[in-house]
Specification:
Helices cover 30% and strands 26% of the residues. It contains 6 helices and 12 strands. The strands form 3 sheets. An 8-stranded mixed beta sheet has the order 1-2-4-3-9-10-11-12, sandwiched between helices. Strands 5-6 form a two-stranded antiparallel sheet. The radius of gyration is 16 Å and the shape is globular.
Length: 235
């Protein structure tokens, strides 16, 4: 299958839709990357980024459950107030339940251990990646979190540091982000570091977006983490 022609799949168990593309190069230890978009977007938004991804990854781009407008989806509704963002906690927890069910089925569906599954989340997708990692860490091996935050409701539900020990993360944020201030990323970094989790943290002079350098650094980290013995550079 061409790298530019993903399959469109509807998960029969959760009803979630996603784009799927098998690895373009064989690998003795397959790995799978699940991409989680931000609010007001959909599964196609992050897909162009995959042109720079190591071809040994099977990649999935997942559409969130809640439709907020024409072709616009989100993991939960959010209102921005003078005192900070206020989220629909019910939608956030419902999305987390669906996402964990979806992830739990992937090892059987694609024939690989959960430790070979990685998440790549932006904005709300980043917050959902944090939520999975902190409450159901056995479902993944690590994650990339860009431009997001740990939801207060999730931080209080985080499992013990011992259960997080196998995870690793790449966290990055725009230092000029007007939507989710960089202080949120710094707080997440400090929380995870105190839990003893290995992570790589970066800040870039950018707003609420995925800068090219952030994508490149994140994908380099994914290759280094998932395929430590062999390096790959995208053309």
């Amino acid at each position: 299958m061409s790298r530019s022609e993903p399959l469109v799949v509807v998960d029969s168990e959760t009803g979630l839709s996603y784009l799927s593309r098998a690895a373009a190069e064989p690998c003795a230890a397959p790995a799978l990357l699940v991409m989680l978009h931000g609010v007001g977007s959909n599964e196609r938004n992050l897909w162009p980024l995959t042109a720079g991804l190591d071809p040994r990854f099977h990649v999935i781009s997942l559409r969130s459950a809640f439709q907020h407008g024409p072709d616009a989806y989100g993991w939960y509704r959010v209102s921005f107030t003078p005192s900070g963002p206020v989220i629909d906690g019910h939608e956030a927890l419902s999305s987390l339940a669906l996402l964990t069910r979806f992830l739990a089925a992937l090892p059987r569906r694609y024939g690989l251990p959960a430790q070979r599954i990685y998440l790549f989340g932006f904005s709300q997708g980043c917050s959902m990646a944090y939520s999975v990692a902190l409450t159901r860490p056995a479902l993944i091996g690590g994650w990339v979190g860009l431009g997001g935050r740990i939801l207060p409701q999730i931080q209080t539900e985080a499992v013990s540091a011992e259960r997080l020990a196998h995870l690793s993360a790449f966290i990055a944020h725009g230092s000029e982000d007007p939507v989710i201030p960089v202080a949120s990323a710094r707080a997440a970094r400090d929380f995870l570091t105190q839990a003893g989790m290995p992570l790589r943290y970066r800040e870039y002079p950018a707003g609420h977006l995925i800068a090219q350098v952030a994508r490149d650094d994140a994908f380099a980290w994914l290759t280094e983490t998932a395929f430590a013995s062999t390096q790959y550079s995208a053309a």
